[in-house]
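Researcher: Structure prediction, please.
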Amino acid sequence: MNKTIIATALAAIIAAPAASAAVQVYQDNTNQFTFGGQLDARLITDQSLKHSPNMVSKGTHVSFNFAHKMSDGWTASSVFDWGFDPFGGKGFTTTPKDQLDTGDSKIKLTSRLGYVALSNDMYGTISFGKQWGVWYDVVSGTDNAVIWGGSADGAYTFSNNGATNGVGRADRVIQYRNTIGDFSFAVQTQLQQDSVDLTAVNMDGNFGPVAPMNVTEAERKDENLLKAAKKQYDKYHLATIEYNNTYGMSASYTLMSDLQVVVGGNIGKFTSTYKDSSIGKSQRTDYIYGLGINYGNLSHEGLYVAANVNKNQWHQADVNGNMLPEAVGVEFYTAYNLGNGLRPYAVFNHLQSNEDYASKAGTVVESKMQYAAFGVAYSWDKNIFMYAEGKVDFSDYKTVKDGNVTKSEGKNGFGVGIRYKF
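Model: Predicted structure follows.
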C-alpha cells in the first residue's frame, strides 16, 4: 500500500482538534476508505445559564475519508464530516456570554467539512470545498481545551465556526498548500457571497436607550438626549453584513523538532446595513492577522505550550453581538502529558476592544472578554476519553442602558464529560 495514500487519508482525520479513532473499512493497492467519529456527552453548570446543570453534546460527528492513488505520484482524496446533536434540544455554545443556542428538539445534521483534494509530494496539495481555513493554521495550537477556548483567536466568528468569512471551517474555499523542508505555506480564496443577520447573533435582543459617556447625571435623564443618543447608537452599529470573496494566507517554519512559528492573515470586504434603517449601505473591510508559537506535541509525553496573538478589524463581536471596529486577541494553552493517559491543562483567552469603540455611543462602551480555564483529560484507551474543566471569568463590560452606566462581569462555569471515539 502506497504510504502517500495512507498519509493523505489519515491527515484529514487528525487535522481537526478532536481527532477520532479511525477505522479502516477498505484498502487495496489503489484505494483506501476510513470511517471515524465520536459521540460526546457533557454536563455543564454555568452562572450565565438560566437552567443549570445542563446536559449537552459538543463535537459529536461522523467522518468518511477516501483516498485514491493515481499516476505520476498524485493522490486524490475526499472528506465528508457531519456534526449532529444526538440528544436533541438546545445546544451549548462557548461564546463570551456562554448562552444556550436557539433550536428545537429535532436532530439536525450540519456540515463540518466536505472537500476534495489532489496531492503530490513535490507539487503540494490543492483542495476544493468546505475545509479548515488557512487562518486556523496560526491559532490551532491553542484550540485544545475541551469545553472553553477559541473565544479570542477569531476562528469561530458569528457562531457558525467561521464559515462565512473563511477563518474556521470555511465554506466554498479553494486552497493550496506545500512544504519545502522545514518551511510550509498555504494560500486560499473563498468564492461565495453570504450574509449574516447580526440581530440574530445579538445575545440580548433588547438594547434599550443609550447615552454618551461624557454627560452629567441630570443630562442622562433627559428624554430627548436619550433619543438622540439612541439614534447615534443605531448609526454606528450594524444590522446585517453581506460578504463577497475572502482571501487568506499562512506560513510556518519549524525551528527545531518541537518548536514551530506560524504567521498568517485573512481579509474580506462586506456590505453592511445599520440598525438605523434610514442610513444607506456602506462597505467595510474585515481583516485579521497574527502570530502563533507552538512547542511540543500533545500526543507525546511531556510539556506542550502554545500561544498566539492577533489584531483584527470588523471581525469579532462584543458581548451583545455587535461588531468591534478594532480589537486585539490573545490566547495561551499549556498541557503536560503524563504518559499514563492523564493530561492536565490550562487555557487563557483575552479579547479587548480599542478606545475608538468606547468613544462611540454604543450600549457596550467597554468590552473586555477575559477568562482562564483549567482541566484534566484522561484517555482510558484509544476509544474512551473523559474530562473535567472549570472556567474562571474575569471579563469586564460597561453598558449604557436606561441612561445609566452599569458594569457587568463574566460568569464562571464547570463541566464534566465523556467521549466515545470510533
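Model: The helical segments are 3-14, 135-139, 198-201, 217-220, 223-236, 355-359.
Researcher: Thanks, that helps.
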